[in-house]
Amino acid sequence: MAAAIVVVFDFDKTIIDVDSDNWVIDELGFTDLFNQLLPTMPWNSLMDRMMKELHSDGKTMEDIAEVLKRIPIHSQVISAIKAAHDLGCELRIVSDANMFFIETILKHLGLKDCFSEINTNPGSVDEQGRLRISPHHDFTQSSHGCSLCPPNMCKGLII
């Protein structure tokens, strides 16, 4: 039986108080390189490149996870999510972050099981132990056709 109320959350600057991509880059000391590369490539390509740079510098998946566990979040957001879930609401996330960041943070906060669906950019670990970030919609193959959204993710199409 489906929930009578579905609540859809963004993630960055909604569930958490900051942008998770910027948080990881800043906390691990790669802000200058990020800012240098930002004008030269799409966001998802840039984040994938930054994960390559972090890995090349010896940063591990555990280092990234530890940074994510320190991310700022208002305590009332946690209790509000748990209360809505306990009341029977179906909770979902539609976010331009990435799956590794979102799942790491939600697991750390004890919120992962509150969400029935997470739509975001894929994040996976390759055979070298490097986080790879991919776009939700492969904009290199075809456009999702929305002029309001970034090329890698149309939230309207997902919803």
From TrEMBL:
Gene3D superfamilies the record matches: HAD superfamily/HAD-like (3.40.50.1000)
GO molecular function terms noted in the UniProt entry: metal ion binding; phosphatase activity
Positions of the catalytic residues: D10 (nucleophile), D12 (proton donor)
Superkingdom classification of source: Eukaryota
Keywords, sorted A to Z: Hydrolase, Magnesium, Metal-binding
Pfam families: Put_Phosphatase
Binding site for Mg(2+): D10, D12
Cofactor needs: Mg(2+)
Alphabetized SUPFAM superfamilies for the sequence: HAD-like
Chain positions recorded as substrate binding sites: D21, D96
PANTHER family given in the database record: LP01149P, PHOSPHATASE, ORPHAN 1, 2
Designated name of the protein: INORGANIC PYROPHOSPHATASE 2
Organism: Salix koriyanagi
